[in-house]
Design goal:
Two copies of one chain form a homodimer.
Chain A (H helix, E strand, L loop, with lengths): L10 H12 L6 H9 L7 H13 L4 E3 L7 E3 L6 E5 L5 E4 L5 H11 L2 E12 L1 H6 L4
Parallel strand pairs in A: 3-5
Antiparallel strand pairs in A: 1-2, 3-4
The structure holds a DNA duplex.
Amino acid sequence: MTKKEIYRNSRQRNRILNLLRSRDDHPDADLIYRELKKEFPRLSMGNVYRNLNILVKQRRIHRIKLGSGSDRYDAVMDHHYHFICESCHSVMDVELPPQDRLNEQAAQLTGCTVTGHQIRFFGLCPRCQSHGDGS
Amino acid sequence: MTKKEIYRNSRQRNRILNLLRSRDDHPDADLIYRELKKEFPRLSMGNVYRNLNILVKQRRIHRIKLGSGSDRYDAVMDHHYHFICESCHSVMDVELPPQDRLNEQAAQLTGCTVTGHQIRFFGLCPRCQSHGDGS
DNA sequence: CTACTTGCAAACTATTTGCGTTACG
DNA sequence: CGTAACGCAAATAGTTTGCAAGTAG
């Protein structure tokens, strides 16, 4: 069924994973590209995307789909939720314990098989609160 | 500050709103376009998008951003959550009461001002359960 | 040596926008 | 009659993909 894909060691892919592990600001493909372009001058955007997709498939990173703008990536693999600042669009982890009872409630209400959920919080991050917004 | 925008009565915009109110399957712009094209043969995609954006701005409909694919629209305006079928990508309402305490918990954990949240449930809808998936 | 990885450019999807015309109020 | 709404086509943002050349194992 699920065909087993084989991946080689790839300098760039490893470096992307490292970069994501070294920071907690959930960068997007473009930031990763600009950052690694310094180390790999011939790096291409297409390859950044290709590798991000592979890392997601390998379950070594998470893709965070913001409402708008580009996707963000996250190397923290234990379950957590996200906060998105409506002013600067920064993304922060929210270490709230998994709210598994919500799945059961949703299943009862809908008759669906519920295997998971996602929670996103919105508001203003500490920085943007003091700046007086600016959106 | 927030400039007051004036909108005329528009046949097409009214019809889009009606259509959304008459169904609970959260259609996307393309389905709305194909559906209303029958009534308005000269209807254009650009105008469907323009009107959907106006309706959202008027707070008469909600935009639902799926992870992938096109945005869905919803004319049910009281607070609720959504279930997304991972097989057929249908969207269902989940009439779970607002989980406001989560906002406070997230605020404490992050130090952010949390003004709202969004919950999305994933799994298989009743139809796709019986079909034996098929994704 | 096989086939995964990469750079490059072109393609693609969903959505927005500029412009000239139509029509609501 | 002024200006919002419209049709149309072109533009945009983000991401994916085909192809030929490079490289890990």
